[in-house]
Amino acid sequence: MKLPRIALYSFVLLTPLIVGGVWLPNNNNNNICIKNRKLIDEKFSQYTNALSKKIIVFGSFPILMDFFRSGPIVRKELLPFIPRALSRIKWPSYVKGVALFSFNADVLYRVGIRTPNVISVEFCYINETLNRESGLCSGELILYIEKQKLKQTLALNLQPASCEQSKELPFLNYYEDEYLKFQSNIYIELN
Amino acid sequence: MFNKIISAIACSAVSIVSIEAAEPVKIISWWGYFDDQVTMKSMEEICNAAISVDEYYTNEEFARRSQNSQYDILIYSETASDLVEKKFENNAIDIAYLTKEYHSIILKKYNSEKRKSNTVFFALAGTMFLWDEKQIKLESYKSILDFLKEKKKKPFVVLDDPLEIYSLLEYGLTKSEKEMLGNRSLEFYGADQYLNSKDVIFSNHLISLLQDEDFSVAYAWSGEVLEQFEILQNKVKYIKANDKSKTHVKVTQVSSDRLPVIDTVQADYRYAFHINFSHISKDLLTLTSNSKASRCIAELISNGSHHDDIMSSSYYISPSLSVPVNADDKYRSMLIDFESKVSKLPWKLQLPKNQYQELSANWQKIKLGFGQ
Fold this sequence. Notes:
The structure holds 2 protein chains of 2 kinds.
Chain A: H1 5-59, H2 62-69, H3 72-78, H4 81-87, E1 95-102, E2 107-112, E3 117-126, E4 129-130, E5 136-145, H5 147-154, E6 168-171, E7 174-176, E8 181-184, E9 186-189
Antiparallel strand pairs in A: 1-2, 1-5, 3-4, 3-5, 3-8, 6-9, 7-8
Chain B: H1 2-18, E1 23-30, H2 37-47, E2 49-56, H3 59-68, E3 73-77, H4 81-84, H5 104-113, E4 119-132, H6 144-151, E5 156-158, H7 162-172, H8 175-180, H9 192-195, E6 200-202, H10 207-210, E7 217-221, H11 222-242, E8 269-272, E9 280-287, H12 292-302, H13 304-314, H14 329-341, H15 353-368
Parallel strand pairs in B: 1-2, 1-3, 5-6, 5-7
Antiparallel strand pairs in B: 3-9, 4-7, 4-8, 4-9
Helix pairs in contact in B: 2-12, 12-13
């Protein structure tokens, strides 16, 4: 049985068009996804680094170490100095409140608004220097985050693309460097 | 009626006495001595005191903090005694009677040092090595110089106290080695070249070493060595109990109690006083307040069952050299070993203030890597 000539021509001509029609938009979509992902990673890393620097400075104040390592009497004496130490850092506008916890998870100090989204940072020291890997943990800092404000600050401006993996991304869900370890429960929806 | 009123007044008076507010007692101390909450609570009840303990980890931290606040009881290394003992000298406070239970050798040492009347010995420690036998054979080193030369290549945790290292070198180097190194005792005989490495960790606390898979040796205080050894052993027991199928016990997760990534099968940890390299260090106690509660607490932490509890939970050594009733086997054998060596081991060296300042400045240089 012979195929009609018209069918053969149609097959030869249409196949690349059909394949290309499916592949090209997909490929384009993938490129957007990769581009978006790159942008997201860059932004996240930029904000993580900026925040981490501020926290390292705060965590290195001797007053904070003393506060963590003190008993109840001296801790009370040091309490007035904690807001002063906090105010020496220019916190990003998406930070709405701060809390300090002892290593036994007792609240030692809290200020500002408590939001459901938090970034928690462990302060561990070798002698009087922050050292995430080998230090002895003395306390924890909780930053209360306003998620909407954080999204605005990140200003992702992504191109629309149907990237399944990019619908919601963790922000600082887990991060560690030489000095600090961060954890958060923040997910940024990408729309 | 009158009797009822009298008895009501008497009852109120009794209640007032019984609910008399606990007197605050401020203590500054090395970390770890006062972690046992049961002992703390018991002491608070006996002395009607509200104890507040501030912990520190280095002599520098102690120096800074002891200037910033007024403490009733200070517990500190003799390295800092120039700073504290003279400043807080108080002839009105005499606690020398707290030395009556000291072992005869320790009492002789205490008497020879002519301490101020408000200062006694609180605890002793021998400097000790904790090492992995699979990586180094400690007994093969006859000189501390040979040891340091070789140690340069591997992670090494060393006490962050200039007088401890000064004493280690003074006792550990031979006369000819000292001469060869230019007799520069206050410059640690040029130890920068051996200690100036990213693998050397200056820390009195040994948690650092537990995080390092390549750890081979630490030079530390005996109490800290035993405590960390106990943590390692417990972790191994825990893993073995939970996963009997594993032939190689490897701790891979740093859990909330900050335990290490260490292959406990590959390593063979040991600790010992080294007859050539170890010496005796001591912590002092100075009482600055004559309040009833402060004196009561000072007495409890220096003698008797509360003192024993503090020593056995921290693994440091009582100046009485007694073995607490509740001492575990490891602690008991260390105490027996220490007592057998106490007459042979030298004491940590002390220096006049100006020389100590020079030594301390050189130590900072080494730590910062600004040496040779």
